């Protein structure tokens, strides 16, 4: 006790305080920079194929009359790989689009079932995400040119047929954004689409680190612009989805999605204009609605395209979307609708908490 009582504690000097504060600030900035760099590297790094990646199913195992095809993107000097599966007498052609780091092989099951329903099928994979690897990728920005190339190729191979799209995850996001600008697409099924690039990044950061992404998201956005040539705001189907009307949209989402926030689907639905439909499968994970109830899922898609593609004698009249003023007005209405939806949800939540 005497030693403790006689000990002298020095008060920290201003110099120590300043240097300690600077050191702490630099430490925090280093952590933020490291997290931002890791995020950007994770999003864009080239895919690597695991061993025996080509030991998988092909159309041969399903006795499908598929052709292995390659076609150019709307912009770029690479080739997009796909399978074109013609159906005798078909009046419709469906593009089947996989998601982030997924291949056309993942689409083989649903492609087979939709082909049996009487559609031509063009199942393809986004360059760098499937079996063609070794190049940096993005989360739905550069890949839009691949989708546009698929539209061009489908029109060349099956001219005059009604064109529809089935997209999953990132593929669904790209389908929504591109269809808003491509009048040839007449009906869209979007399974597990995210509303904005920011929302899907934030959702995964919260799940992995149990903290919001805001402290380093702005820095990651800057680095993404430098590294990949785009920013978060350039991949936002929430802004574009209203421009698809009067063409029909079917939004599908799993209530237990661990990759894309399940709340994104109602946001997209609120921003879209009629005709539109939202199907939430409460027990399904990401892109899992098919596996929750295979017969019901297939019936849902077959009925949707039967009504909105096969029974259409002419393409729907489309609103001119080339005017920047029109696009801006529609985007503003979509964001206002989504904002109003969030406000209603918050009010309902507050009422429920007060009642409890």
Structure description:
The protein has 356 residues and is α/β, with parallel strands linked by helices. It has a single domain, classed as Rossmann fold (3-Layer(aba) Sandwich), CATH 3.40.50.1820. It is 46% helix and 13% strand. It contains 12 helices and 8 strands. It has helices at 2-6, 14-44, 108-116, 143-157, 170-179, 197-209, 214-228, 237-240, 264-271, 289-292, 294-310, 324-355, and strands at residues 67-71, 80-85, 92-97, 120-124, 162-168, 185-191, 249-254, 276-281. It has an 8-stranded mixed beta sheet with strand order 1-2-4-3-5-6-7-8, sandwiched between helices. Helix 4 crosses helix 5 and helix 9 (264-271) crosses helix 12. The protein is globular, with a radius of gyration of 24 Å. Mean pLDDT is 87; it is low at 14-23 and 316-321.
Short summary:
The protein has 356 residues and is an alpha/beta fold. 46% of the residues lie in helices and 13% in strands.
Keywords:
8-stranded mixed sheet, Rossmann fold, 8 strands, alpha/beta, 356 residues, 12 helices
Q: What is the helix content?
A: 40-55%
CATH architecture classification:
3-Layer(aba) Sandwich
Task: Give the tally of β-strands.
Answer: 8
Shape: globular
Compute the CA-based radius of gyration.
Answer: 24 Å
Number of helices: 12
Strand proportion: 5-15%
Mean pLDDT: 87
Instruction: Please mark out the parts with pLDDT under 50 across 5 or more consecutive residues, or reply none.
Output: 14-23, 316-321
What's the structural domain tally? 1
CATH class wording: Alpha Beta
- If strands are numbered along the chain, what order do they take across the biggest sheet? 1-2-4-3-5-6-7-8
Summarize the biggest pleated sheet.
Answer: 8 strands, mixed
* Amino- and carboxy-terminal Cα gap: 55 Å
CATH topology: Rossmann fold
């Amino acid at each position: 006790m005497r030693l403790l009582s006689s000990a002298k504690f020095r008060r920290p000097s201003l110099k120590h305080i300043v240097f300690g504060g600077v050191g702490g600030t630099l430490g925090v900035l280093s952590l933020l920079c490291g997290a931002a760099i890791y995020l950007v590297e994770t999003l864009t790094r080239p895919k690597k194929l695991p061993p025996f990646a080509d030991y998988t199913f092909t159309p041969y195992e399903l006795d499908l009359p598929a052709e292995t095809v390659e076609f150019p993107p709307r912009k770029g000097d690479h080739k997009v790989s796909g399978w074109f599966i013609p159906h005798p007498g078909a009046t419709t052609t469906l593009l089947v689009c996989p998601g982030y780091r997924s291949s056309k092989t993942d689409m083989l099951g649903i492609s087979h079932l939709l082909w049996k329903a009487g559609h031509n099928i063009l199942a393809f994979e986004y360059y760098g995400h499937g079996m063609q690897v070794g190049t940096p990728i993005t989360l739905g920005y550069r890949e839009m040119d691949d989708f546009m190339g698929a539209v061009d190729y489908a029109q060349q191979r099956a001219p005059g047929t009604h064109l529809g799209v089935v997209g999953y995850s990132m593929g669904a996001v790209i389908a929504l954004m591109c269809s808003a600008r491509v009048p040839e697409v007449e009906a869209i099924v979007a399974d597990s689409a995210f509303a904005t690039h920011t929302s899907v990044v934030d959702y995964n950061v919260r799940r992995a680190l149990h903290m919001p992404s805001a402290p380093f998201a702005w820095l990651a956005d800057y680095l993404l612009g430098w590294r990949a040539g785009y920013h978060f705001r350039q991949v936002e189907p929430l802004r574009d989805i209203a421009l698809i009307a009067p063409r029909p949209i079917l939004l599908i989402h799993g209530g237990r999605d661990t990759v894309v926030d399940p709340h994104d689907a109602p946001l997209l639905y609120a921003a879209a204009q009629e005709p539109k439909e939202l199907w939430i499968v409460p027990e399904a994970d990401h892109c899992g609605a098919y596996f929750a109830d295979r017969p019901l899922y297939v019936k849902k898609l077959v009925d949707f395209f039967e009504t909105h593609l096969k029974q259409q004698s002419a393409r729907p009249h489309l609103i001119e979307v080339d005017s920047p003023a029109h696009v801006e007005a529609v985007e503003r209405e979509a964001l206002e609708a989504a904002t109003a939806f969030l406000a209603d949800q918050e009010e309902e939540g507050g009422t429920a908490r007060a009642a409890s």
